[in-house]
């Protein structure tokens, strides 16, 4: 097991991506703390993990609430003794679907603000505990739109690029404390609820990739496991390409 006895917090752990990563983390031996704004999907993921013999706690949490984030991180450390892995995969709001020239400022800026504030709050809360222990891994998720612009993606590409830049900066600051920071850049998955309504579009996207397929949720989850594990101990300040070769890095 690559994550045996590791303690992991996943913000957005009830979503499609967060849930897939949580279940894979548990399969690899991690103790899970799932956090999100809506309890029901967290409980579904947690129940599946416990049914499989794993350990999972669910907590209702707004990742834009600094006091709630700090209190939750402190509770995890109090209960589990440490915090080894922190991953933020929360949603950022509706920011795609129309040209920038007609988009309202709040729709463009709001998603960028939510992404940056939530990543700052969750990563720094975890980072302070990790630096005291001298080890830990902070993970984030971006998308290929952060590297290559697409039409009508609104603020999504901008926030993806901002997440990646934040991860690089954080890695530079936390590295001397033994903490690694890695961002997974995904190509998007047709398995997500949003993806299932655009199968023809996803098929066209798949043709643009080197592998002629899009990354599945299990692909993203497996990449997250590897980056969170000690086998990636020399990898930090890196943007991991999980796009099936849509991008050639």
UniProtKB/TrEMBL annotation:
Record bears the keyword Nucleotide-binding: no
Q: What Pfam families does this protein map onto? A: adh_short_C2 (PF13561)
Q: What is the enzyme's main class?
A: oxidoreductase
Q: What is its EC number?
A: 1.1.1.-
GO terms of molecular function: oxidoreductase activity
Presence of the UniProt keyword Oxidoreductase in the record: yes
- State which residue ranges cross the membrane: none
- Keywords in alphabetical order, please: Oxidoreductase
Query: Which Gene3D superfamilies does this chain map to?
Result: NAD(P)-binding Rossmann-like Domain (3.40.50.720)
InterPro entries, per database record:
NAD(P)-bd_dom_sf, SDR_fam
Q: Which family does it belong to?
A: Belongs to the short-chain dehydrogenases/reductases (SDR) family.
Q: What is this protein called?
A: SDR family NAD(P)-dependent oxidoreductase
Q: Which organism is it from?
A: Tenggerimyces flavus
